[in-house]
Amino acid sequence: MTSEVVFWDLRTTRKATYEVKLRRLLKAAGVSDAVRSGDLTAVKLHFGESGTTGFVSPLWLRPIIAFLRKLGSKPFLTDTNTLYVGNRGEAVSHCLQAAMHGFDPLLLGAPVIIADGLNSRNQVTVPFLGRQIREAHLAGDILAADSLLTISHFKGHELAGIGGSLKNMAMGCATRQGKMHQHGCLAPMVHAQECRGCASCVGVCAAGALQLDEDNKIHLSPELCVGCGACLHTCRKNCFAIDWKTDITAFMERMMEYAAAVVRSMTKSRACAHISFVTQVTPQCDCAGYSDKPICPDIGILASRDPVALDQACLDMVNKAEALHPSHLPPGLAAGEDKFRAMHPHVPADYGLDYAQDLGLGSRKYHIREI
């Protein structure tokens, strides 16, 4: 099966402005078929960690929100709290970070709602029988929405190789526990020597996996830990850390299974659509805290109902594009070579897309429809 991916190369004219061309893209991609009048539509995006500049700008986002509202939808901008401790680790700081980057509900016409709640406890656990997981821990307000539109900044990623629509769904729609689950590190690492015996982590550990020992130092019982990550965000002495080391193939499979769990858990089978901005294609994720020089020129905006085809098309276009030097790319890398594996050689050549296809998320075969 071949899927359609709609592409706009960002060219405009006096009559065919950005807003006009973007509306054409959204109509051609079938967004109006995925979103119905009266829908509470989750617009899943990344608000950008402090210090980054490559995230999708609110200025570029505003016509998309206007399009959804004209359909009769009630869109809300959403993301989930991060696993790591930072400016998006709980909903208060997360909303403030979104505001700092210009995501103003009064200007955009859509409120900011952190989908997994104040401390990532708004969670729905759904069954999923895959190669790696038997259940997925997802954000409650993503699953409560009537439709889902992912808006992704296509870029590199230190662990997954690329960050596109599939990763946006998989990691971005998971709670802290779901993120820990995908990384394969159920229990955090413990640095007991840093503990001051305040027991604040013991109070937030619903599983009862934490207790103070006879030396008034924290002790973790791994067999009881459920990987919720609450201790990471409670401790002020950095006693807990994430073990980022993981089997890459297993990690990629867990990530694709989580993306499939999101799609299968939506209330309507036709309720998802996806947009990717292939602009400022940076080597790292927008979580990195900085945005390095892009690795290729801006390419355009792509959209599809098929997230696998969309990620594949974005990947192909970036790899075909001119390589920008100097940048994070190895010197001498030419157009047509795989830019992301040149930076992240540990990643499998298919970026997990074959397994995503096997899971029924979409097709790697696509054709481009230009507008």
TrEMBL record:
- What Gene3D superfamilies does UniProt report for this protein, alphabetically? 3.30.70.20
According to the entry, every stretch annotated as the 4Fe-4S ferredoxin-type domain falls at 186-215, 216-245
Q: Name one GO molecular function term.
A: 4 iron, 4 sulfur cluster binding
What is the originating organism of this protein?
Answer: Desulfonatronum thiosulfatophilum
Q: Sorted alphabetically, which PROSITE patterns does this protein's record hold?
A: 4FE4S_FER_2 (PS51379)
UniProt entry keywords in alphabetical sequence: 4Fe-4S, Iron, Iron-sulfur, Metal-binding
Asked if 4Fe-4S is a keyword of the record, the answer is: yes
An example of a Pfam family matching this protein is: DUF362
In Swiss-Prot or TrEMBL terms, this protein is called 4Fe-4S ferredoxin-type domain-containing protein
